[in-house]
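S1.2 Input.
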Amino acid sequence: MAERIGVYPGTFDPITLGHLDIIRRGAKLVDRLIIGVTTNPSKNPMFSPEERMESVRREAAEQGIDNVEVVGFNALLMKFARRQGASVIVRGLRAVADFEYEYQMAGMNQQIDAEIETVFLMADVGLQPIASKLVKEIALFGGDISGFVTPTIRDEVVARVAHIGRLGDY
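S1.3 Output.
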């Protein structure tokens, strides 16, 4: 039987406990899960693609998830998935707003390549509100992000914020 390959795409800027939950659960569904770290300049990244890829590799390894591979990409998702030999796209859903967007994307992706299925995993209830964008915002205002990321990621984000400067203390 052919190896079942899945792709979990995202910016992972930074990787959160929610991302790690989806990676852990998604990795159980496939023989190999390729975590596609993409560039999205509109998201105003805090970390470079290389830094994000290294963080994802390290955090997945520390969680004991050994059937993952981290690959950077800057292309149409379905073309990337096809190049990786994937038959599944793994996506995490946090809320209804995510569902609406992801449903539309899955429909478009199916039009591009109907042989690659999209699988949605509901976020763990305790992790549903976590979003990288909000983690960065909280950190930039000097808030505690330790409930949303691993200790190592927290330290990296805090160090980056110290380097670029916090936002106002009004």
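S1.4 Remarks. Helices lie at 17-27, 49-62, 77-84, 96-112, 132-140, 151-164.
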